[in-house]
Amino acid sequence: MVIRFRPRKWITLAHCASPSQWTLLNVTTGAHTNIDFPDLDAHHYLGTADGLLVLGHKRTNIIHLLHPFIGKTTEFPSHYAPSTLNRSLRVNLSAINGAGTDDSTILSTLVISLRNGLRQFICAKPSDKLWAFVQAINQHSASIVDKVRGHSPLTFGGRCYFTTSDSMIIALDLTPGVEPHMVCLLDKDPWLVNHQETIIYSYLVRSHDRMLMLRYLFGMNLLREGGFNEEDIFMCQDCPSLVEVLEVDLPRRRLVTQHGIGSRCAAFVGASHTVMVSTEKFPRIISNAVYLNYFMQGLFRHFGAYCFEDKTAISARNFQDRRIGKNSPCACHWELEDYLMCDVEKGYHM
Questions:
Q1: I need a labelling partner for 246 at 20 to 30 A (CA). Which of 138, 190, 269, 275 fits?
Q2: Which Pfam families does the entry mention (predicted)?
């Protein structure tokens, strides 16, 4: 798990022909290579953490991190210990929403966010016997942070960060001898205080040496309450909508508005993880655009992509006739943009 050897600019593409065959693709240079890991037949692929594959053994539920180039695996526990029980419970692999690594500890810590109503974080080092629940330690955290699911885990500068739907940014305090607990680095955006009825989806994206927040807002009161440039608001399903890009300034704990994500790249956003792709190497993908995941496009019938250059929204894709589960998407038959729109939002049915 050495930091400088992690393939964080590479993504893993699965094939339907064989669960053990994968394609590794560099989203910056376009380089790719095919690999075969026979051991993958016995594992569920749960996502990535800073370029490393997160795998769960189908029989034992033991979680592994796999370096896709050198084949080295790191083993993590199969059980966790809720603070309210005196016994350990098996990790439910289907509840894993996303993962990241935190290198503030001597041995790097794997941090996992859970879904299906659990809205919790668990973490462990390779030497630990059990996963630990990440605790909220003050009234503010207990009433807000502990009840909100973390989105788009992102490893940046050796730390693991999450954002919530209402744009809070959370890190973890993993000080030895103290129970792991959440730290709110950036509270709710003051601009959103008057927009209680606005629905918000926030995602963290790594862009070279910067951390960006991509934020999608929609609701009738976007126009009524003000505070936003009306020229940036567009209509989607007869509802005012807005897509924003903000740079996360961690030292000053603030968000700085940007005018797009760049003329040579595009972002794919989901609750499991996010991907920034070079549009020079993949010209079929629209430049300076953000692509919503299949869940947002299908269930909520939102747009498929938003282009900052001309401020236009592109119609949603139809994923209803495709399998969204542990055997899909498939790089054999899918275009890269369709694959990524599904991969960033896991929909496992184990």
A1: 138
A2: Beta-prop_KIB1-4
